[in-house]
Write a structure and sequence with these properties.
7 strands; 31% helix; alpha+beta; 5-stranded antiparallel sheet; Peptide Deformylase; 165 residues; binds nickel (II) ion
Length: 165
């Protein structure tokens, strides 16, 4: 959880030799994400220094997980959209974040095949939020310093309380 410095570090690319590890980790990450509940979870959030994340928007209320290995934003629209975001690493905190409305993201799947997603709406937000995590960026980093510090100060205070309680 923030302010854990591991959330601010850039991850290293998943190489072929890491693929087995990632395959083993994905079910646990999905379980953590569904239990939260959340729609995305990136490796740094579970203290892993690898460039991958899982997402599931559960369209039609059915599980439809996607594992994004070495994802990259290939294209961003000039139009922006503002959406309220939260994060499993900043529990209980929400804020409006403005990002490109549409993105094209490329990634490798669990078999190592390069895939492309064209996304808009919630999926576009979720993809950008998770890819940010892999670069050590939290949604609060998109806010004004004033708003960001307000949330981070509360996180530090809550952490102290957790230690006491
Ligand atoms: Ni997050």
């Amino acid at each position: 959880m923030a302010p854990d410095p591991r959330l601010k570090a850039k991850t290293r690319p998943v190489e072929p030799k890491d693929r087995e590890t990632v395959r083993d980790l994905v079910p646990r990450m999905l379980a953590t994400m569904y239990a939260a509940p959340g729609i995305g979870l990136a490796a740094p959030q579970v203290a892993l220094d690898l460039r991958f994340a899982v997402i599931d928007l559960q369209p039609d209320e059915k599980p439809a997980p996607i594992t994004l290995i070495n994802p990259r934003v290939e294209q961003r629209s000039l139009e922006e959209a503002t959406r309220e975001e939260g994060c499993l690493s900043l529990p209980g905190h929400y804020a409006d974040v403005t990002r490109p409305e549409k993105v094209v993201v490329s990634y490798e799947d669990l078999e190592g095949k390069r895939q492309m997603i064209e996304a808009e709406g919630l999926l576009a937000t979720c993809l950008q939020h998770e890819i940010d995590h892999l670069d050590g960026i939290l949604f609060v980093d998109h806010l004004s310093a004033l708003k960001r510090n307000m949330i981070l100060r509360k996180m530090v205070k809550e952490k102290r309380l957790r230690k006491i309680g």
